[in-house]
């Protein structure tokens, strides 16, 4: 079977684990990764990650020219870089490269730009690409319909250095029609990778839906799941929620 060629935008805390998961999966070939700086680093993602191979050339963003995607073609571009990243890969969409973005703190104009690329290529955007959080989001949505009068609070916990409010928590708030400035409770301690909880409070019972990402490898596995669903699709905007909601519909038991 023909392997799927992948390029990654961002090779930081998350991008490295994304690259690692693609390197370990024989259905994919990691063609390159793009990062911001020209600082001295390994030439290949695989050697940076401790493998004795030279796979996934590391390319500084300053070397990405207008014809970069013609010279370095891939089937899918996976972005875990920065909200500015999207400005530099418009030409990928023109070359028909499918795009997965996991950047979680877009400004509205950047999100609009990403969405506009979906007119010419398949784009999947998800501020939390894990299957677990996506299921939590779908389940919370259903629960809200069943118990519309419950008090709902969202808790998000991350590592100390994360400055912005969780994009996942904001998306959950939007889905549940909650004012994000009032109902998101953020905790920043130590090295927590990412934990999200939605609490439904009623007078005589409490329902808590929670998810913890224990390793950033969870994001890599989510990106692989998304890539397998996106490849071969028509141009358009896709989401993890619609994929998981379809699976819920398919597997939901009837009593
Ligand atoms: N959707 C999801 O499930 C998840 C989303 N995220 C999101 O992913 C993003 C990255 O997170 P994290 O890995 O922790 O961040 P880091 O700061 O650790 O890494 C960011 C990476 O992006 C690179 N970079 C920065 N600007 C650009 C640019 N303009 N073009 C290309 N590369 C660039 C940096 O390059 P250099 O290394 O050279 O400085 C670095 O490699 C955040 O928005 C985060 O919230 C994180 C986890 C899960
Ligand atoms: O910055 C991160 O690391 C993460 N960001 C996402 C968010 O803001 O929701 C998702 C994940 O929990 C990790």
From TrEMBL:
It is an enzyme of class 1 (oxidoreductase). Pathway: Amino-acid biosynthesis; L-lysine biosynthesis via DAP pathway; (S)-tetrahydrodipicolinate from L-aspartate: step 4/4. It catalyses: (S)-2,3,4,5-tetrahydrodipicolinate + NADP(+) + H2O = (2S,4S)-4-hydroxy-2,3,4,5-tetrahydrodipicolinate + NADPH + H(+); (S)-2,3,4,5-tetrahydrodipicolinate + NAD(+) + H2O = (2S,4S)-4-hydroxy-2,3,4,5-tetrahydrodipicolinate + NADH + H(+). One of its GO terms (molecular function) is 4-hydroxy-tetrahydrodipicolinate reductase. Residues 132-243 form the Dihydrodipicolinate reductase C-terminal domain. Keywords: Amino-acid biosynthesis, Diaminopimelate biosynthesis, Lysine biosynthesis, NAD, NADP, Oxidoreductase. It holds the Pfam family DapB_N. The keyword Lipid biosynthesis does not apply. One of its GO terms (cellular component) is cytosol. Its EC number is 1.17.1.8. Gene3D superfamilies: Dihydrodipicolinate Reductase, domain 2, NAD(P)-binding Rossmann-like Domain. The keyword Zinc does not apply. Residues 4-128 form the Dihydrodipicolinate reductase N-terminal domain. GO terms for biological process: diaminopimelate biosynthetic process; lysine biosynthetic process via diaminopimelate. Belongs to the DapB family. This is 4-hydroxy-tetrahydrodipicolinate reductase. It comes from Selenobaculum gibii.
